[in-house]
Amino acid sequence: MRLGIFASIGSPYAQLLCAAAADRGHQTLLLDFESLTATVRDGRINWQCSGHDLRTLDAAVVRTMPPGTLEQVVSRMDLLAGLEAAGIPVINPPKSLECAVDKYLTTQRLALAGVPVPDTVVCESAEAAMSAWEQLGGDVVVKPLFGAEGRGILRVTDRELAHRVFRTLERLGAVLYLQQFLTGPRYDLRLLLLDGQLLGAMQRIPREGDFRANLSQQGSAVPWQPSPEELLLARRAAEITGAIFAGVDLMHRDDLQPVVIEVNAVPGWKGLEQTCGVPVATLLVDWIEKRIARAAIS
Predict the structure, then answer these.
(1) Helices 159-171 and 126-135 sit at what angle, rounded to 10 degrees?
(2) Which residues lie closer than 8 Å to 177 by C-beta, 6 or more apart?
(3) How crowded is the C-beta side of 98, counted as CA atoms within 13 Å?
(4) CA dihedral in degrees (133, 136, 141, 143; nearest 10)?
(5) Could you tell me whether strands 90-91 and 27-31 are parallel, antiparallel, or unpaired per DSSP bridges?
(6) Spelled out in words, what is the top-level CATH class assigned to the domain 120-180?
(7) What is the C-alpha to C-alpha distance for residues 156 and 146, in angstroms, rounded to an integer?
(8) 8-37 as b/e, with b when 16 or more CB fall inside 10 Å?
(9) Are the beta carbons of 100 and 253 closer than 8 angstroms?
């Protein structure tokens, strides 16, 4: 198997995938989005990246989506969609990446499908955000639409601070994305799914003085056995966003009912692997092998 991995330089996840693939006798190519080009000539499309002809790939894994302009990000998605249309499996599919990278689009799709999510408001003006802050009980989490690992997330409970934060974001031309702060149990859950199958789950607990439970923000973790309801929600969320390999984050309301906070289509797994003892990279490479074998038979 010839496996392409779109990853940032020095990515530990790319290294884990390369090692797992090498153990199975496969070749891996590390790819950089910024060197991705497409050529249309005589009705045929060819893709080149980091000096490699991408038509020779058996599959591609997306492990990063580097910052860029709107045009650059859209172009990368278009090129990934072209690879997929040419019969090269992309994990995760471009449509799921487009959805999961945008927190509000994910929330909107989940809510339209009847999946419970926190009360949320998205707007562009500080005035509308202040009104939303009031409606959401004066205790909200403000998140960037694009972002991961808990970066750029603020909890706002003070009126004056809310006014300053919203005015600043408005001046920066940012979209204001507010979610009601959930006052249920002080932890969240990360469920890692591959094609609907649970690879592992952990309970993440924030460090003292913080509300973010991300391990990248010095949270701690222990293994978790999801309830049938929690597992069903995670599977539904992955299905709705189209993510084959998905990290689904859940929290609980005051009444202990679980809600979906986020779906990550480029999920990190080092923390879960250490917590649960699951060889994620090996399982992912094995799944890709089987998918390619099934496609060859059909």
Answers:
(1) 140
(2) 103, 104, 120, 121, 122, 142, 143, 144, 145
(3) 14
(4) -70
(5) unpaired
(6) alpha beta
(7) 19
(8) eeebebbebbbebbeeeebebbbbebeebe
(9) no
- Other beta carbons less than 10 A from residue 43's beta carbon: 5
Q: How far apart are CA 204 and CA 247, in angstroms?
A: 13
> Considering the domain 185-278, what is its CATH architecture?
2-Layer Sandwich (3.30)
β-strands 2-6, 59-62: how paired?
A: parallel
Instruction: Please state the domain extents for the chain.
Output: 2-91, 120-180, 185-278
Write the class of the CATH domain 2-91: alpha beta
**DSSP calls for 201-256:** EEEEEPPTT-----GGGT-EEEE----HHHHHHHHHHHHHHT-SEEEEEEEE-TT-
Say if pTM beats, i.e. exceeds, 0.85.
Answer: yes
Nearest in space to 143 (alpha carbons), one of 181, 108, 116: 181
Question: End-to-end CA distance of the chain, in Å?
Answer: 18
Q: What is the pLDDT along the chain (298 residues), one digit of tens a residue?
A: 999 999 998 899 999 999 999 999 999 999 999 999 999 999 899 999 988 999 999 999 999 888 788 898 889 999 999 999 999 999 999 999 999 888 999 999 999 999 999 999 999 999 999 999 999 999 999 998 886 665 678 899 999 999 999 999 999 999 999 999 998 888 899 999 999 999 999 999 877 656 665 565 557 789 999 999 999 999 999 999 999 999 999 999 999 999 999 999 999 999 999 999 999 999 999 999 999 988 777 6
Q: Which residue has the tokens 């992912």?
A: 284
In sequence order, the 6+-apart residues with CB closer than 8 A to the CB of 290 are: none
Give phi and psi for 252, each to the nearest 5.
-120, 140
Among 272, 237, 257, 268, CA closest to 103:
237
Token pair of 102 as six digits = 């945008």
